[in-house]
């Protein structure tokens, strides 16, 4: 509602009040958030970003809670961004992830959980999640967990945001498992077969492991064998092993060209998202003003001519974009 | 991003098994276009901490098995202490109407009796959100 400028220093100092307000402004696409995010940039880049994805009800939130407990036990502070779907009809949302994690958080100042509604915009959501990651990063959280909406519910590209993506599956998926394979090779760095306390988990894990999933690094050189682990989020079994696999992946990508390439890709996608956002808002408005009250007989032709002129003008701009580093 | 949505933190006691009413309210508010964080609390400080992290516009507490006055006595100062002075606080469930005025005095902006027609709570929230302050 209110849109005062949030003091960046307060966020860096760890103020949950100010960070919470800033995230709301980010979600609402408020321009007030932009200068604050810029001021936070120097404090970003330290957090380990872990994505938790998988089909609805697989146990993503419960597993996130188990990971929070484990990480807190290691003395690491945790930020959580938990995305749940918005209703396409009313725009409202029921955000239930926090409830599953409440026990793990329970007033611990080392844990900051934020529930986010998907608001139906997969592109816009990715931008908002990226910026929210920065807020938690700048606050000094050691690890930021990002729980996506269930796979197949308007997935946004978690692989472009997280350093490590944990794909949570459950036993007895049958044909759905076949469909998941695409996801495994495209996004999963670690596979967790959850509900290990239920029958069939070990068999599912064995079947998956037998497939020998591998991910190939950006230059085609390094390969990462995707580990498949059985866990029970409910009982906390296998969680330490899962956390170790995540850390191992993080260390592996950090030691190779992998992470640098990923960070470049993340930077690029944020640049384009930001540009697209402003173009949609401001340039479009300016274009309409150019049109004025005239009613073009040939709207398509007029649009073509306008965009052509715009691109021409863009070519005359300096080739260097200020604020970028040559690497 | 697309528009702004009223964010409601809807809390109920973890040890309270009555879940039907609060879930009904959660759905009603969602269907009114609000973003509802539903969660069960152990101690009242958890509500305030969650409201802070979520930057909730509204804190709604469902009380089915009494304790409303003590919850209010703990909750209002906990919210104020954290700087959440603009948040709208409401209660509902099985609360005797004789408690409504004492709850008001403690800082709960509005308490609702059971059996209200749908839409009343959403309408109250929409009319009062952003205008409240905790005194
Ligand atoms: C069903 C029921 C149960 C079921 C619950 C099943 C479940 N999972 O939900 C069972 C049998 C388990 C149960 C157990 C108990 N129950 Co019982 N239960 C009921 C009963 C009959 C109906 C409740 C219900 O579901 N109503 C339907 C829903 C839709 O309505 P509602 O809950 O009132 O919710 C509405 C409003 O209150 C409001 N609302 C609710 N929350 C909120 C929040 C906000 C912010 C707002 C604005 C509005 C709002 O919106 C809803 C829609 O209008 C009521 C009696 C009654 N007629 O209300 C007793 C009742 C609630 N139970 C009661 C009691 C005492 C108990 C027990 C303690 C009994 C015992 N001694 O063991 C235990 C509780 C154990 C525990 N740890 O919690 C008392 C509470 C007395 C009080 N508050 O002073 C009641 C009122 C019965 C009575 N007359 O004594 N109960
Ligand atoms: N038996 C068993 N049940 C589990 C386990 N982990 C989660 N569950 C249950 O599975 C259900 C869904 O868990 P959530 O953690 O909410 O799943 P989710 O993937 O976050 O669900 P969405 O966010 O709605 O997609 C709950 O009833 C959990 O209690 C587990 O290890 N074993
Ligand atoms: Mg979940």
TrEMBL record, chain B:
Pfam families listed in its UniProt record:
B12-binding (PF02310)
Keyword annotations from UniProtKB, A to Z: Cobalamin, Cobalt, Isomerase, Metal-binding
SUPFAM superfamilies the UniProt entry points to: Cobalamin (vitamin B12)-binding domain
**Single GO molecular function:** isomerase activity
Domain of life from the UniProt record: Bacteria
PROSITE patterns attached to this UniProt entry: B12_BINDING
Q: Which InterPro entries match?
A: Acid_CoA_mut_C, Cobalamin-bd, Cobalamin-bd_sf
Q: State whether keyword Zinc applies.
A: no
All copies of the B12-binding domain together span 5-135
What cofactor(s) does the depicted protein rely on? adenosylcob(III)alamin
UniProt name for this protein: Methylmalonyl-CoA mutase
